[in-house]
């Protein structure tokens, strides 16, 4: 039985959650579109996560679309009291699976209602507004209009907390002028560390930072240095990548994604891995060697 308590806890919204969670995006079919090849395995992955103590699952109704939320409901409803499901809005899929912005008040309201219905919930505990100004990465521009719509849906009691995704530090500050930001979910991992300064700024405000693509996303991380560290400490490269994130900052909450039980178990077990300073220093240099300058100076070693 895997025990994930080694990851510790951090407050998300109003709840202390285990820092080792699960991201459900990989449960849909290829390209996050359509049903999975093996729906029974998808449900077993979700059940396995809960059995191991995962209390934070990340999802969206645009995964599938609808499929991932329906799988979560089928596998886990009625939900354990301690489970916190975080969803995101601002996109829709066309009939070929393309991701299109869906940010009008009507579209955002429909997305919140769809999430509620497909997950079988009366209130969404955390909804992330995902910026679509540039779908591929954070880009400046005001998010005031969609943020205001979501604040109104929160006022109506459909949402408990709001977060942001794919955003810049400026957009976080803009949102905070009119409401609390419960979490920020951006791309970040050993090799993609453009958010180093943002992570530290959020930590100073006790706001969780939830890296998406913690393992590199659809093409998992490949690095000789990562492989060498993993071999030296007798762990797998993916476990080392997750443990590095856990040791990067206490406000980081992990949501690694997988569609298989064996990868789930491997990933969750990283909660118990403590990387020595000498290996952290090697891993810290992966980004420096690939990306040049950056603001963060490593794990203090
Ligand atoms: N806000 C956003 O814009 C956004 C964007 C993307 C994702 N997300 C969220 O972030 C979560 C995490 O991102 P992600 O799932 O896309 O990427 P990820 O966690 O970085 O990696 C998932 C990929 O790694 C593979 N994998 C997982 N565990 C592995 C292991 N132990 N060994 C080898 N390969 C392994 C998976 O394949 P298998 O299925 O074969 O294990 C899958 O291809 C998502 O589930 C989603 O909830 C948010």
From TrEMBL:
Key word Mitochondrion present in the record?
no
Q: Which residues form a coiled coil?
A: none
Q: Matching InterPro entries, A to Z? A: AKR (IPR020471), Aldo-Keto_reductase (IPR050791), NAD(P)_OxRdtase_dom_sf (IPR036812), NADP_OxRdtase_dom (IPR023210)
A molecular function GO annotation: oxidoreductase activity
Query: Keyword Oxidoreductase, does the record have it?
Result: yes
Q: Which GO terms describe its cellular component?
A: cytoplasm
Q: Which residues form the NADP-dependent oxidoreductase domain?
A: 19-287
User: What's in the keyword line of the UniProt record?
Assistant: Oxidoreductase
Pfam families per the UniProt record, alphabetical: Aldo_ket_red (PF00248)
Q: Record's SUPFAM superfamilies?
A: NAD(P)-linked oxidoreductase (SSF51430)
Q: Which domain of life is it from?
A: Bacteria
Which NCBIfam families does the UniProt entry name for this protein? PRK10376.1 (NF007695)
What is the name attached to this protein's record? Answer: Predicted oxidoreductase
């Amino acid at each position: 039985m895997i025990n994930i308590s080694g990851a510790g806890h951090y407050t998300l919204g109003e709840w202390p959650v285990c820092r080792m969670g699960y991201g459900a995006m990989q449960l849909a079919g290829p390209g996050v579109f359509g049903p999975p090849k093996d729906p029974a395995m998808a449900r077993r992955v979700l059940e396995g996560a809960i059995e191991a103590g995962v209390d934070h699952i990340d999802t969206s109704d645009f995964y599938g679309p609808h499929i991932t939320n329906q799988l979560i409901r089928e596998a886990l409803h009625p939900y354990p009291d301690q489970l916190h499901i975080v969803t995101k809005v601002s996109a829709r899929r066309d009939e070929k699976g393309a991701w299109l912005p869906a940010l009008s008040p009507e579209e955002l309201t429909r997305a919140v209602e769809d999430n509620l219905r497909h997950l079988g919930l009366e209130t969404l505990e955390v909804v992330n507004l995902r910026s679509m100004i540039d779908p591929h990465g954070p880009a400046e521009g005001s998010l005031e209009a969609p943020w205001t719509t979501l604040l109104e849906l929160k006022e109506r009691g459909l949402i408990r907390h709001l977060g942001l995704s794919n955003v810049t530090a400026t957009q976080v500050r803009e949102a905070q002028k009119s409401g609390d930001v419960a979490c920020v979910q951006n791309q970040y991992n050993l090799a993609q560390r453009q958010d180093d300064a943002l992570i530290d700024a959020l930590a100073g405000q006790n706001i969780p930072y939830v890296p998406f693509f913690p393992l590199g996303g659809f093409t998992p991380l490949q690095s000789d240095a990562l492989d060498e560290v993993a071999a030296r400490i007798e762990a797998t490269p993916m476990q080392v990548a997750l443990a590095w994130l856990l040791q990067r900052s206490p406000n980081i909450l992990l949501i690694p994604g997988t569609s298989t039980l064996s990868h789930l178990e491997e990933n969750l077990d990283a909660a118990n891995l403590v990387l020595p300073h000498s290996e952290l220093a090697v891993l810290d240099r992966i980004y420096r060697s690939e990306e040049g300058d950056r603001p963060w100076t490593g794990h203090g070693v």
